[in-house]
Write a structure and sequence with these properties.
The protein has helices spanning 2-13, 29-41, 46-65, 71-77, 96-108, 112-127, 131-135, 166-179, 203-217, 224-237, 242-249, 254-258, 264-273; strands spanning 142-143, 148-151, 160-163, 188-190, 196-200. By secondary structure, the chain is mostly helical. The strands form 2 sheets. It has a 3-stranded antiparallel sheet. The chain has a two-stranded antiparallel ribbon with strand order 4-5.
Length: 286
């Protein structure tokens, strides 16, 4: 939000003022609606434009709370509509062959890093975790008997429970044989020579580890978040209810979960083919 407000300040001042020089409490509808118009003119993505509007509204609300503007001045200045419209889903869904190639690459690495990276890949694509959530997992968060995986550092400080079953559980169990069941972070650093260092990985270290596997497997570039998109899309394609997918993904709304749907045109064609239109072809004209 700080970076967003700094950019709004440049918009309002033609690039001459930074965020601390703008008299936010003096803004009126003419200026705030001008920011919205400029965002549309610049063809900003809908989510990006609405983040700008939310930041602007937030500053105006604080100015009113501090008594720097009247309620009427605040209401008029903040009365700018969100930007509407629809966009194609961001990122991409990994094909099954790509995921298999990544696991094969990890399996061919007989060092502890191979088992660790396979387990990281498994919880991202098999449980839909964000990389920051995977980095924050402790050994105690995983119940091997039930497969319950407790995510305690979710986005927005929201905890949730997901389940590591099947291949995900097997990958985690293989990694724990190497790591051991001692307390601490589930995913730890592996030094040269295969020596484990029981210090947790950062989310950037997880990104780098997966990208090394991607390069070794010769695959297309992807982000760790694309594995989350793959998880959500695979569940939806399997017929899992959208509301349940939302809970597993830890999203605040169904709308957010729907934006991760990468089933594409094939799924739409299949859905259209399920409809029965009672049209009968007329006989050929004589």
């Amino acid at each position: 939000m700080g970076a967003t407000l700094a950019e709004i300040a440049r918009m309002l001042s033609g690039g001459s003022h930074d965020v601390d020089m703008i008299p936010w409490a003096s803004l009126r509808y003419r200026q705030t609606s001008g920011v919205r118009a400029l965002l549309i003119e610049q063809r900003r993505a809908r989510a990006t434009a609405n983040r700008f509007i939310a930041a602007l509204r937030g500053v105006l609300r604080e100015a009113w709370r501090l008594g720097q503007m009247t309620a009427e001045e605040y209401q008029q200045a903040a009365d700018i509509a969100l930007v509407t419209g629809s966009q194609l889903p961001r990122g991409r869904r990994l094909a099954r062959e790509e995921v298999e190639a990544l696991f094969a690459c990890c399996g061919n690495d007989r060092t502890p890093a191979g088992a660790r990276d396979a387990a990281i890949l498994a919880v991202l694509v098999g449980c839909g975790l964000r990389r920051s959530e995977a980095a924050g997992l402790d050994v105690s968060d995983y119940a091997r008997v039930t497969g319950e995986l407790r995510v305690r550092v979710g986005k927005g400080r929201k905890e949730r429970v997901v389940y590591a079953l099947g291949g995900t559980a097997a990958a985690l169990d293989d990694w724990l044989v190497v790591r051991g069941m001692g307390p601490g972070r589930l995913f730890v650093r592996v030094r040269k020579g295969g020596r484990l260092e029981l210090r947790g990985m950062t989310d950037q270290a997880i990104y780098a580890a997966l990208d090394r596997r991607r390069v070794a497997a010769g695959g297309r570039r992807f982000s760790p978040h694309d594995l989350r998109r793959t998880f959500i899309t695979d569940l939806l394609e399997a017929g899992v209810d959208l509301a349940l997918v939302q809970r597993l993904a830890g999203h605040a709304s169904l709308t957010t979960t729907a934006r991760y749907d990468h089933r594409g045109e094939t799924a739409k064609r299949k859905a259209a083919a399920m409809l029965v239109v009672p049209y009968r072809r007329c006989g050929a004209a004589s």
